[in-house]
Structures are given as structure tokens and as C-alpha cells.
């Protein structure tokens, strides 16, 4: 009977696996990657602390000429945790962090997490009112900042702790920075200097608070899917699940390797993929407080990272920059692209450029959004189609639904990309209505994150991106996807870059407008304009051909380096309103 039962169980397992593959066709690409993973049942701090016990002498942080081992990292975090307790920070209290990628910011993030408080992380160049609003929203009464951001926070009615950006620099670098950035800055007497703050924590006591994986850990800010700034509440599980997923998804994420941590910590991609993932695996984070785009190639060649997280605008700069030799990029083993859509053309150009600089790195594209801790799916080499944005990470389910509904679309049908999985946010801060729009309970009983992105799954369950839902242009009943037009127009011999936005039309409701930047060697002439129009008429279906063309010297960029299509869209909407007002 035992042998028969064993045989029956094998048959049942085969049937179940077959059913799973029908529901999740992407599983055939998993190779040795399991469908389900066991996630760390603790806090972000706990995950990094355990790695520090395992690899105490591995390098954890590099900041200019200063390095910290994992053992030193934990000691600094623990000291800051004591100082926070001395300032009477309690469990679930929100501590605001307004800093660039410097060691002290990392110490604070994990110290806050250790004592059971919540990190409220905001852009260090935010305006004074935006900082006030972000702190007021979560009742935060303490803020950590740097000398570079002090002017924006000095009038806050809060406990202010200031750390110089040069604090962790050594010798000559510290001297040069302080000389270059010398300001006649006088701190209010209530302000606490970083050195005095850390002295509070010299006498180490136990400050650890047991936190579950589902407890809130971090609040970051995003435009979200409706365009309004919202605080996104992410749990310990959000970060620790992506860390575990990355161990399998990105084979180059190995203990002892290094990663260029240049993307900012106030952004999901920067904080999760560039900081927490490497520190909870055993990599070295090469901290860059402010990336100098004109010197980015030199930075890569000098710092020699093994993993290179980037957004597409960075890749554009890299491949247009000066080559520094046939071995200048040989340390780079993988390029991790996220934060914005990467065209197949730019992907191919980048890999060619890196090969010419000594690297055999392939680009691994990740797709995600802040509401899902910036990472939902990733490309894999076994998928030959290079225009995709990956297969679902373990434990993530991706489906395509009719926008704003739970009506599921079939394979190869465009609709809204929706996801459920361990990295999905807990919700928005104090915005139940907005949370309910984005996190929806479907008829299957599960809660799905509606991403606000349009795309489709092919027959193999591989995800493809079409456009932002709000960017889709509906012209005379036809759906026009700006991203597709941008890719076509950017291939024109005269065009360097392009953004397509929708503009109002009396009859068709909305039509496409192309905003174009020419290559440096061309000037805006009637002949060039005509050539571009002819190119569009030849290569774009009739109903989607741009109705208007605008030529600019450059495209507007957001704080995190994305093309700011909203600014262009809002400008057009404003122009239409002004015309109506004049009438």
C-alpha cells in the first residue's frame, strides 16, 4: 500500500504542478528557483544583524576613502539606537530622515527600525513646506538632516539633529569638502550636532524591540498612481521578501561582492535594492551622496562595483560619455535597470558599450513601483524576447485586469498590471480613500495592487509594458500608447530623445503631441521638421501620428531622474485653459 500511495501522490503532484503552470506559465523559466520562499520573520535590523554575525569582517559600507565592516556597521547602529532611546523615541513613533546616501543615514534607518520606530524618509532637497507637511502627516517631532539641507529645516518646531556630509570622510577629503562648502551657518542652540548626539549613546544598553514581519518599518513618498504626493507605508516583510527574492533572481548578488549605491534612499529602488538587499545578503554598499552625471563613467571605473543599479537616464549619459579604456568597466557583472522603462534599443547599445569597456555584463531589467517596494518582476536570460519587463518574482502573482475593475484580461490583451505578493505596501498614510482605490479586494477574495501601468502577459506569462494608465491617449475611440510612439520617433536619425503627451482636440477629444530634442549636430530648421514628420507618417499608424510637434533643447527631469512627462502634460493643459479664458 505504501508504494501505491507514493505513486498516487506523485500523480497528484504532477497534476497540481500542471495546473500551477497553466495558472502561472512563467514558472517554466524558474529553472532552479523555487516557486515559494521562506522569508525572514523579523525586522530589517534583525536581517542585517544576522548577516553581520555571519560575515563580521566583510566590508559593509564604503564612503569615499572610509570603510566600515559589518561588525563596525552594527556597532554604529546600536550606538545610534541608544541615543534615540535617550531622546525618548518610542515604539511606532515616526522619525524623519532628510539625508542623502551617507553612512550616518544608514545608521539611523536601522537604529530606528531596531527600537521599533518607523522611518519617515523624505527628499533632502524638499522645500520647507513639503518637509513640514510630511512631518505633520505622521506627527513626527524629530528630524535628522545634514549641513546641506539645514536651511530647509531650521525653522521647524522639532528636535533637529544635524550631521555634516563630511563627517565620515577622512583627512584631506574632509578638509577639501569643508573648504569648498564653507558657509557662515549658525545653528540654533536647540540643534543637536551629530557628534554630541552619538555621545548620548556611548553607554550601550539593550534597545532591541521585537517586531514582526508585518509591522510598519518605513514611509517613503511617491506620486502614487493618482499623481498626488502620498506617504507609502512599507513593512519589514516588504524589504526582507525582496532581499530573499534577489538572492535567487539576481545570481550576482553574492556575499563579498560590491554594489554602487548611488540611487537615493528616499526612493524605493534606492533604499531597497541599493541598501537593504545588499546589506542583508553580505555585499559592500559603495555610497554616493550625490551622483555627478558628468563623471559617472569615472566613478564606475574608480569604484569598481560588481552590481550597477541604474535608471535609464543614467545609461543614456554613460553610453554618450568618454570611454576610459578597454578594461575600465571589467568589474561590472550585472547592470540592474529599474525606475523607468528601458527601451530594447538603449538596452542593446548599453551592453555593447560595456563590452567595449571590458565588461561582459548583461542588463537585468526589474519592474516595480514604490507601492510594491520597487520590485515585482525581473527579466531572465532564457526569455529571448528582449522587449519584456520580466517574469514574476517568487510568491508574486501578476495578472492583467480591465482598468479600475477585477475583470481579468486574456493573454496578449492590454490592461492594467495588477500584483499581489509579500512586497505590497500596507497602505497610504491617512488616505483611506486613495488606499482603497489602489489596494482592491477582488471577487477572488484577495487584495490586488493596481499599479496604474498598462501592459500585457504573453502566452508564457512574460510581462510587457505599454504605458502609464494616465498617459494613454484615447483619440477618436483609438487607444494610443505614448511609449510606443516615443520608441519609434527616437529611432529617427535626427532625434536624440522624445516624449509624447496628449492634447485636447475639438473632434477627436485628444490627439498626440511629440516633444522632441534633436541630436547635437542638428538645428531646428523647416527641412528637419519636415523630414521628421515624413518619418512619422511612414512609420506610425495613421490615427496615432502626432498632431503637433514641439522642439526643445532638453526634456524636464524629475528629482529621481525620470523624464517629467507630467510637467509637459500640465503645460499643455494650462495652455488650453488660457486659450479658453481669452475667448
CATH architecture of the largest domain: 3-Layer(aba) Sandwich
Q: Strand arrangement, largest sheet?
A: 7-6-5-3-4-8-9-19
The helix content is: 25-40%
> How many structural domains does the protein architecture include?
2
Radius of gyration: 25 Å
- What is the general shape? globular
CATH class of the largest domain: Alpha Beta
Main pleated sheet:
8 strands, mixed
What is the CA–CA distance across the termini?
88 Å
Unreliable residue runs: 1-22, 576-583
Output the number of helix runs: 17
CATH superfamily of the largest domain: ANL, N-terminal domain
Task: Enter the CATH topology name of the largest domain.
Answer: Rossmann fold
Number of strands: 27
Average pLDDT? 88
What structural class should be given to the helix and strand makeup? alpha/beta
Amount of beta strand: 15-25%
Describe the overall structure:
The chain is of the alpha/beta class. It has two domains: 44-366, ANL, N-terminal domain (Rossmann fold); 472-582, ANL, C-terminal domain (GMP Synthetase, Chain A, domain 3, 2-Layer Sandwich). It has 17 helices and 27 strands. The strands form six sheets. It has an eight-stranded mixed β-sheet with strand order 7-6-5-3-4-8-9-19. It is globular.
Features:
583 residues, alpha/beta, GMP Synthetase, Chain A, domain 3, 2 domains, eight-stranded mixed beta sheet, five-stranded mixed beta sheet, disordered N terminus
Amino acid at each position: 500500500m505504501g508504494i501505491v500511495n507514493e505513486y498516487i501522490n506523485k500523480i497528484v503532484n504532477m497534476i497540481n504542478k500542471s495546473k500551477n503552470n497553466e495558472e502561472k506559465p512563467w514558472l517554466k523559466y524558474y529553472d532552479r528557483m523555487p516557486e515559494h520562499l521562506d522569508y525572514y520573520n523579523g525586522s530589517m535590523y534583525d536581517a542585517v544583524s544576522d548577516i553581520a554575525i555571519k560575515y563580521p569582517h566583510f566590508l559593509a559600507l564604503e564612503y569615499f576613502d572610509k570603510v566600515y565592516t559589518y561588525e563596525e556597521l552594527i556597532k554604529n547602529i546600536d550606538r545610534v539606537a541608544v541615543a534615540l532611546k535617550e531622546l525618548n523615541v518610542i515604539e511606532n513613533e515616526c522619525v524623519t530622515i532628510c539625508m542623502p546616501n551617507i553612512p550616518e543615514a544608514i545608521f539611523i534607518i536601522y537604529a530606528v527600525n531596531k527600537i521599533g520606530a518607523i522611518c519617515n524618509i523624505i527628499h533632502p532637497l524638499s522645500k520647507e513646506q513639503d518637509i513640514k507637511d510630511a512631518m505633520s502627516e505622521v506627527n513626527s517631532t524629530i528630524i535628522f538632516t545634514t549641513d546641506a539641507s539645514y536651511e530647509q529645516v531650521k525653522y521647524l518646531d522639532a528636535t533637529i539633529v544635524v550631521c555634516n556630509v563630511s563627517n565620515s570622510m577622512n583627512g584631506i577629503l574632509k578638509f577639501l569638502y569643508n573648504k569648498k562648502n564653507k558657509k557662515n551657518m549658525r545653528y540654533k542652540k536647540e540643534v543637536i550636532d551629530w557628534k554630541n548626539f552619538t555621545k548620548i549613546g556611548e553607554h550601550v544598553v539593550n534597545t532591541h524591540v521585537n517586531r514582526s514581519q508585518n509591522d510598519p518599518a518605513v514611509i517613503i513618498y511617491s506620486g502614487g498612481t493618482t499623481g498626488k504626493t502620498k506617504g507609502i507605508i512599507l513593512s519589514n516583510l516588504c524589504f526582507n521578501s525582496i532581499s530573499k527574492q534577489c538572492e535567487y533572481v539576481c545570481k550576482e548578488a553574492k556575499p563579498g561582492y560590491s554594489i554602487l549605491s548611488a540611487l537615493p534612499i528616499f526612493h524605493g529602488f534606492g533604499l531597497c535594492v541599493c541598501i537593504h538587499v545588499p546589506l542583508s545578503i553580505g555585499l559592500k554598499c559603495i555610497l554616493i551622496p550625490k551622483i555627478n552625471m558628468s563623471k559617472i563613467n569615472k566613478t564606475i571605473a574608480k569604484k569598481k562595483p560588481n552590481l550597477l543599479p541604474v535608471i535609464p537616464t543614467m545609461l543614456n549619459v554613460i553610453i554618450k560619455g568618454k570611454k576610459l579604456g578597454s578594461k575600465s568597466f571589467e568589474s561590472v557583472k550585472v547592470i540592474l535597470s529599474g525606475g523607468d522603462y528601458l527601451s530594447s534599443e538603449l538596452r542593446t547599445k548599453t551592453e555593447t558599450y560595456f563590452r567595449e569597456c571590458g565588461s561582459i555584463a548583461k542588463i537585468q531589467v526589474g519592474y516595480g513601483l514604490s507601492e510594491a517596494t520597487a520590485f515585482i518582476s525581473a527579466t531572465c536570460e532564457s526569455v529571448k524576447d528582449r522587449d519584456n519587463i520580466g517574469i514574476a518574482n517568487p510568491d508574486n502573482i501578476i495578472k492583467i485586469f480591465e482598468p479600475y475593475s477585477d475583470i481579468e484580461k486574456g493573454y496578449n490583451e492590454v490592461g492594467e498590471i495588477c500584483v499581489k505578493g509579500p512586497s505590497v505596501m500596507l497602505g497610504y498614510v491617512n488616505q483611506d480613500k486613495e488606499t482603497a482605490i489602489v489596494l482592491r479586494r477582488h471577487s477572488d477574495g484577495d487584495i490586488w495592487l493596481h499599479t496604474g501601468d498598462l501592459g500585457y502577459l504573453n502566452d508564457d506569462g512574460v510581462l510587457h509594458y505599454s504605458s502609464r494608465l494616465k498617459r494613454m491617449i484615447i483619440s477618436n475611440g483609438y487607444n494610443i500608447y505614448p511609449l510606443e510612439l516615443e520608441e519609434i520617433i527616437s529611432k529617427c536619425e535626427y532625434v536624440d530623445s522624445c516624449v509624447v503627451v496628449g492634447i485636447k482636440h475639438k473632434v477627436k477629444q485628444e490627439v498626440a503631441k511629440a516633444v522632441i530634442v534633436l541630436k547635437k549636430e542638428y538645428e531646428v530648421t523647416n527641412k528637419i521638421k519636415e523630414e521628421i514628420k515624413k518619418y512619422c507618417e511612414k512609420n506610425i499608424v495613421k490615427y496615432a501620428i502626432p498632431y503637433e510637434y514641439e522642439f526643445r533643447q532638453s526634456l524636464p527631469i524629475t528629482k529621481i531622474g525620470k523624464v517629467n512627462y507630467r510637467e509637459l502634460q500640465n503645460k499643455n493643459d494650462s495652455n488650453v485653459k488660457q486659450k479658453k479664458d481669452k475667448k
